[in-house]
Amino acid sequence: MLLSACGSKKDANKSNFADAIQSYLDTRNGVCISLPAKEAPFRLEKKTLFDIIHAQEKATAMVSAGLLSARDIEMPQPGTNKLVAGTEYSLTDSGKKFLVKGGSGNLGNWDGFCGGKYKVREVENFTEPADMFGAKISQVNYTYEVDGVPAWTKDSSLQAQFPNLVTALAPTAGDKAVLVATNDGWMHEMLFKKRGG
Q1: Tens digit of each residue's pLDDT (9 = 90 or more) over 35-89
Q2: CA dist 116 to 91, 92, 147, 187, Å?
Q3: I need a surface site. Which of 4, 18, 64, 136 has the fewest CB within 10 A?
Q4: Could you tell me the sign of the dihedral formed by the alpha carbons of 57, 153, 115, 195, in that order?
Q5: Would you call 19 exposed, middle or buried from its count of C-beta atoms within 10 A (0-12, 13-18, 19+)?
């Protein structure tokens, strides 16, 4: 009876919640930015009227950070027989090291550059566990840091194009997680869903 009073993985407490969140963060690729195309190498027209994702600016920033190299080319203009000025972007050795297939996290599953590892710093607070949709859940607010941050994440032109870098690397970076009580203890909802929950 004394041993059971010491607590179990099923208890709703900051330590168990930190462990559950860390288990999920360990499955992530670290801080990621999306290529401005599905994969590399890729080509972009130099002058285009419809660059709603700011592909040129993002590619230029990736060149500045040493992830891509660029060379001027002539390329076919879509829908015409004309050649137009363009740029071909290829991976550098550094870019190859950090490229993760499908690492962008976007709907198109584009490749991305990723680095570092998320680490829970502190569980700040959590809601009292409550029943919802047949499961007991708790919403948790936590702070985190990124260990092993690669140098390219600090490139100012890259940070200007990818504000998520600045957010993820801030000393006060934090997030929310929904945790689900299972027979093995608490689990992040994303892992719970992946395992058929």
Answers
A1: 999 999 999 998 776 667 789 999 999 999 999 999 999 998 877 888 999 999 9
A2: 19, 19, 5, 23
A3: 4
A4: negative
A5: middle
pLDDT digits (tens, 9 = 90+) for 2-27: 444 456 888 999 999 999 999 999 99
Q: Which residues make Cβ contacts (< 8 Å) with residue 151, sequence separation at least 6?
A: none
90: DSSP letter = E
| Whole-prediction pTM | 0.84
* Backbone torsions φ then ψ of 22, nearest 5 degrees: -60, -40
| Boundaries of every domain in the chain | 9-28+116-197, 31-115
| Backbone angles phi and psi of 97, in degrees to 5 | -65, -35
Structure tokens of 56?
């040129």
Q: Which two tokens stand for residue 66?
A: 């040493």
